[in-house]
Design goal:
The protein is an all-alpha fold. The protein is built from 27 helices and no strands.
């Protein structure tokens, strides 16, 4: 619901694997000699085809490699990557498991398992798998870079720094060395150094999403709001369903004085029930600056209310893939019967796709079938469990009056992703409803330290917690901070 601004908390895992230019040599090969040359060439050719988007060609090459050596774990790692790229997420998991069966100590297979666990279960659960991959092959640059990123997402910055230094020793020219150092510099309040390191990485010029996001955050920190808006516009076009990027883009538009464009782009989205309070506040500010207090008023009321958190299911946005746009168009029109039927048809056509499992769950949830939705969400969560998916699953459990399951799932997500302000706020709200004000206040303080202090709902809850705990001075302080977020009314003409 909220995009964190300072200190930054990036999803460092965005496309870090594959940023290096070579495939790590597994420890078995180092001990027993190089693989059979023709087989190795096939794997390299398949990698090149995948990198170029030629998935059918990659599949043909891997079929040929499988005929030569069906029990090579590198083969099954490649098959898992291909299946994942092709949207066959559940069968990709099966291929990764086959690679581990054939090579329990095979570093690339352990790394792939670590990445899958991170997506499905969170950062903390993935750490043992990254450590196992590094034990199998301490010189595996991909494993070390992803391990460092995961430590950073857990807030373990000193451990992250040690891992980055190890990466610099084994792969000094790897662009991720400079990128990860740039992240640490920005988190440490050194944007000039962060910019220099990011430029040295070359990842922004290559269009790596995580680098584009970091570049925008540095620009905002330095007051280069127009530059930040430009980068975020590029990123939002590539990731139209990424609500955090869209919220940050809206902020950059407002800060750069482009109120008209802000209102044009985001007014319809801000009016939806599932829109974040932060986005509603930004658009309201845009209307205020344009002198339109009539349109600003309801958005401000929503932004400063602390009602029930309604998750987005099938909101329509430009730039989405055709099947997604089709489903969301039906949902926006209120035709949930057709949306559910269309989603089931896609699910039957692509049974191994986690994306279509989630879309099917969204359609079921929107049509009032929370139990069916939870079954679909469970399939999708085998592959990845981002906060929007957890949020919808929690909502489905609450619709079924199963608060225990909802609270357990929410707490598990916070434990796995402890720097996500949105998840922390959701858990704090749950604790507040139960009267556990001390625990709620501790969580909210942590969220504010992560950069959530711009959210009016969060500040209102923190002020209420202070009052419930008999801390009147603290309550007044948070009330003042919340009031400062509200744009001042325009003077009467």
């Amino acid at each position: 619901m909220i995009f964190r601004l300072r200190p930054i908390a990036l999803l460092l895992a965005l496309a870090l694997a594959g940023c290096s230019d070579s495939r790590s040599t597994p420890p078995e090969q180092a001990a027993s000699g190089a693989p059979e040359p023709a087989f190795a060439r096939l794997l390299d050719d398949a990698d090149a085809a995948m990198a170029g988007g030629r998935l059918a060609e990659a599949g043909r090459i891997l079929d040929e490699a499988r005929a030569r050596d069906p029990d090579d774990p590198d083969l099954w790692v490649a098959i898992a990557r291909l299946r994942f790229r092709g949207g066959e997420h559940l069968t990709a998991i099966a291929a990764a498991e086959r690679a581990l069966e054939l090579g329990p100590d095979h570093a690339p297979a352990l790394l792939m398992r670590a990445l899958m666990v991170r997506d499905a279960h969170g950062f903390a659960d993935a750490l043992p798998w990254f450590e196992a991959a590094l034990t199998a092959d301490p010189s595996n640059a991909d494993a070390l870079a992803e391990y460092a990123a995961t430590l950073g997402d857990l807030g373990r910055h000193r451990d992250m720094l040690r891992a980055v230094r190890e990466l610099a020793e084994i792969a000094p020219r790897d662009p991720r060395v400079f990128y990860l150092q740039a992240v640490l510099a920005q988190r440490g309040g050194k944007p000039v150094l962060a910019r220099s390191l990011l430029e040295r990485s070359g990842m922004t010029a290559r269009g790596v999403p995580a680098a584009l996001l970091l570049d925008a955050l540095i620009s905002l920190d330095q007051g280069n709001d127009a530059s930040a808006a430009q980068q975020l516009e590029r990123l939002a076009a590539r990731q139209p369903a990424n609500t955090r990027v869209r919220d940050l883009f809206a902020r950059a538009l407002l800060l750069s004085g482009r109120e008209g464009e802000l209102v044009e782009r985001f007014s319809a989205e801000a009016a939806r029930p599932e829109a974040s309070a932060y986005l509603a506040m930004l658009v309201a500010r845009g209307y205020e600056r344009l002198g339109d207090r009539v349109r600003a008023a309801p958005l401000l009321e929503r932004a400063y209310a602390s009602g029930e958190d309604v998750p987005a299911t099938l909101a329509l946005r430009p730039g989405l893939p055709q099947p997604v746009a089709e489903l969301r168009g039906l949902a926006v029109a209120g035709n949930w019967v057709a949306a559910r039927g269309t989603a089931q048809a896609y699910r039957a056509r692509f049974p191994a796709s986690a994306d279509f499992a989630q879309l099917s769950g969204d359609a079921a949830l929107g049509s009032g079938q929370p139990e069916v939705a939870l079954a679909d969400y469970a399939s999708a969560a085998r592959v990845r469990r981002p906060w929007p998916l957890t949020r919808k699953a929690v909502h489905a459990y609450r619709l079924m009056d199963d608060d225990v399951a909802a609270d357990t799932l929410l707490a598990r997500h916070v434990a796995g992703e402890p720097q996500n302000v949105a998840t922390i706020l959701a858990l704090a709200q749950t604790l507040a409803r139960r009267g556990e004000w001390q625990r709620s206040a501790m969580l909210l303080d942590h969220a504010i330290a992560m950069g959530g202090g711009h959210d009016p709902v969060l500040l209102a809850l923190r002020a209420q917690a202070a009052r419930e705990l008999g801390q009147s001075d603290e309550a007044a302080r948070f009330d003042i901070l919340r009031a400062e977020l509200r744009p001042p009314p325009l003077a009467k003409r």
